[in-house]
TrEMBL record:
This is Fe2OG dioxygenase domain-containing protein. Coiled coil: none annotated. InterPro entries: Oxoglu/Fe-dep_dioxygenase_dom, Pro_4_hyd_alph. Its cofactor is L-ascorbate. The keyword Metal-binding applies. PANTHER family: 2-OXOGLUTARATE AND IRON-DEPENDENT OXYGENASE DOMAIN-CONTAINING PROTEIN 2 (PTHR24014), FE2OG DIOXYGENASE DOMAIN-CONTAINING PROTEIN (PTHR24014:SF18). Keywords: Dioxygenase, Iron, Metal-binding, Oxidoreductase. Signal peptide: none annotated. One of its GO terms (molecular function) is dioxygenase activity. Residues 1-20 are annotated as: Disordered. It comes from the Eukaryota.
Amino acid sequence: MSTNDGTQKVRENGNGVELPPMQRLIPFENKEHNPESYEDMQLDYSPLLFSSLERYLPPNMLSLPRDRKVHFLSDILTRYSPQGERTRVQKHRKYRQQILSSYEPRHKEVYTMNAANFFVPSFLKAISENTEESFRSILVEPTPGVYTFEVFQPKFCEMLIDEVESMERWVHDRRFHIICPNTMNKYGVVLDDFGLETMLHKLMNDYICPMSRVFFPEVGGLTLDSHHGFVVEYGVNRDTELGFHVDDSEVTLNVCLGEKFYGGDLFFRGVRCDKHVNTESQSEEVFDYAHVPGRAVLHRGRHRHGARATISGNRVNLVIWCRSYCIDQD
Ligand SMILES: [Fe+2]
């Protein structure tokens, strides 16, 4: 007999000895079910893993509260998942808690979405109209699949750079071992680790998704649901250039925040799947882009690209890798 949380009710054998409850997932994915997000919960495993497994829950569990589903799935994961993954997630959570408990933000206003102060009016108008026509009125598509448009006010760029410098001073003063933005960039900060996760999630949901739905529906642009948000720094005593690569994202938003620099152009070389990521480019795929402070570049994560050397000065860019759980599973 099943209980309403999908577990098998504890049974008794003829001798009255209780047998352990059965906790099993169903053998086939329920593709019709839209899983919940677990990003805001304190979990021992990646929140995405819970979203992923939710489609394998017994049907009578799908409408239960999240904490019941977490309890059920955690029991299963503890039995089967490698200790290493649990340790990694626990360490990262501790790392974030250490930062959040003692880092004092310099500009509290960047931690809460304030659209009127963050974005330029033309961008806000296009988003509020929310049509392909309104988006196309503010952007250019210099090569297929790469969209550039003015997005941030200069004041917001300055404030975010100042906040990042404050984070770096805090790290330096405490000789804190900081996690790098990604495997390729050594200089910069993961903003999500410093308390900006909620603001960046809103930025993705309310301001990137409307555009990605129109321009990148085939790669998950309709269903972006998680992100990795960071700032990278190039120039003197920083990274110089970035090799040819694809991003760990479905859709990437890359915005130059400043400051004064020479060089550092982005070069694009066409979209490729995993199998053909190193194949040659066609001449029509070759495109170079010169960064302009406050201006965004929006492209598929699989659109191959790199950054040329920043020859002088310092360049700071905000990058948001937007991901879709649905695409990850395909
Ligand atoms: Fe990249």
